Amino acid sequence: MKTRIRTEAAALWTIAWPVLIGQLATVGMSVADVAMTGHLSADDLAAVSLGANVWVIILVSVMGIMMAVNTMIAHEVGAENHERVPHMVRQSLWLGLGVGLIGCLLLNISTLVFNYLQLDPAINAKASEFVHVISLGMPAFAMYRALYGYTTSLNQTKPVMMIALGGLLFNIVVNWLFIYGHLGFPKLGSTGCALATGAGLWLMLGAMIFWIRRAAAYRETFPFGHYEGPNWAEIRSTLRLGLPIGVTYFAEVSAFGAVGLLIARFGVVPVAANQIALNFSSLVFMVPMSLGIALTTRVGQTLGEGDPERARFVSWIGYALSMSFAVVSALGIMLFRDQVAAAYTSDLAVQAMASELLLYAAIFQLSDAAQVTASCAIRGYKVTRTPMLIHLMAFYGFALPIGCLLGLAPAWLPWHPEHAMEARGFWTGLVLGLTIAGVLLTGLLHKLSQRRIRQPAGLSHGMA
After folding, report:
1. Cα-based distances in Å from 369 to 36, 107, 203, 245, 322
2. Where would you tag: which of 51, 402, 411, 462 has the fewest CB atoms within 10 A of its CB?
């Protein structure tokens, strides 16, 4: 048994570690944006914080929809139906183009929300311009995620790592040029961040297409052999699986984003501190997220091979690895939260509040790892609707209402705290929501994997 555990853990890690580096590099773009504007001015940092809240909500929702590509192709690869893969990739690119354009439109419309947050007019203008500029990268991101799902389903994760690292380097250099106005370039501040990230996403899409065209690993399933128009039946099939994933991602990230917007009423310092704590916790979150992506691939391939017992074993190995990391990350954040805050900003008031909010981030490490790993394993079973409902209930039924109750202490309620906890109250609600999601999704994975083993061969109930 020990040998079997080590073998499966090694197989998962082989897929996960390049994905992890790629995910860290992608999130690193946001870290660079926040850190570099944090050393320019509090106003620019606040503008990036508010704009990033809106950008990330749409970005992660689009990413969730495109995650269906990974699940569907992994099943075909496991079943050795390689002849279907090129067609599926071409259709996923059409899906990505459409979803990306819709995401771009929604981003530009979403800037209207800033008018209702009682923001300083200068910060409102900066945040709106940030969103308008960065939105131009959304179609590239959606199509890149289609190819991302294709390459990870083939266990080819090296390009994900290399391209993301290149994108991070590009982002830092262009940030340096346009945020501060070095080497004769215009000093754009927060807008320079948006320009760097949007252009970087198009560069990453081009790099992924180039890699697939040149690498031998894609020859058997090469998707660019000929032009193929959109097949609406195929696109609808992918959307049926992907939309619940997108809503699941939206539920979580919009809850965090809504907290950022609601905290804006308390001033620049809480906004900046919230963004620092959220940004760093998102960076740490990439480890369980990467293990989850590897799990989606491994579980999908194993079920495609017709081995549900092994799929259950794979699921729990990945879950155990993720929870082990969560214990380490929780302790690390608790011990070094002051140093983390100081690395982001030189403003002492922002540092103090960010350090306090990072303590909440340390507390929810276990529940956050549990919910993302379990939901990714469940996704490998082509089950997406029940996790969606769990996330909606956890974040909109508990996290946000309790966060508003504690954070705002509205006087019109029959019972409310004597004093509003402000940002601390909202983060308390987030801890509760993540805990509920983690417990329920872990239970769902247990029941689903057991039921699939007992199910007669040839029967499957996807997208439940």
Report:
1. 29, 29, 31, 17, 6
2. 411
Sign of CA dihedral 425, 430, 433, 439: negative
> Which amino acid appears at position 439 of this protein?
V
**Rounded Cα distance, 234 and 255, in Å:** 32
Let me know: does 260 contact 53? Beta carbons within 8 Å.
yes
Query: Which tokens is 313 given?
Result: 């074993």
Counting beta carbons within 10 angstroms of the beta carbon of residue 83, is it exposed (0 to 12), middle (13 to 18) or buried (19 or more)? exposed
Query: What DSSP state is assigned to residue 197?
Result: H
Is residue 124 within 8 Å of residue 114, measured between CB atoms?
Answer: yes
Instruction: Tell if the pTM clears 0.85, that is, is over it.
Output: no
Q: In the 8-state DSSP scheme, what is residue 116?
A: G
pLDDT, one tens digit per residue, over 123-167 is 888 889 999 999 999 999 999 999 999 999 998 988 989 999 999
Tokens of 183: 């080497």
Q: Which long-range contacts (CB under 8 A, 24 or more apart) does 230-238 make?
A: 230/91, 230/94, 231/87, 231/91, 234/87, 234/88, 234/91, 235/91, 235/94, 235/95, 235/98, 238/68, 238/69, 238/72, 238/88, 238/91, 238/92, 238/95
Whole-angstrom distance, CA of residue 301 vs CA of residue 303: 6
CA–CA gap between residue 172 and residue 344 (Å, rounded): 15
